[in-house]
Amino acid sequence: PDEPRDARVVRELLRSMGLGEGEYEPRVVHQFLDLAYRYAGDVLGDAQVYADHAGKPQLDADDVRLAIQAKVNFSFSQPPPREVRPTTANPSYSISSLDSD
């Protein structure tokens, strides 16, 4: 009852994933909240930069969407296709070169 609403939401999220009380350490809730607050702060900070750059007096939903998309594009990049990787790898870093040392 004295628990903050955000912590209750995280516990409910964990419960919806099949994890009951005692199946995770209590600090998991705090770690998740810290991550969420930091992420939201970063996104809103980036959105404010975009709004300032556009000369807007305040940020709006488009600025937030752009900040989220930029964060997703930067954070979750895909590796190159399998066909490209062998041609771009440096042969001097192969496993066999490590064995010869």
TrEMBL record:
GO cellular component terms attached to this protein's record: SAGA complex; transcription factor TFIID complex
Record's subcellular location: Nucleus
Gene Ontology molecular-function annotations: protein heterodimerization activity; RNA polymerase II general transcription initiation factor activity; transcription coactivator activity
InterPro entries (alphabetical): Histone-fold, TFIID-31, TFIID_subunit_9
One Pfam family here: TFIID-31kDa
Assigned protein family: Belongs to the TAF9 family.
This protein's name: Transcription initiation factor TFIID subunit 9
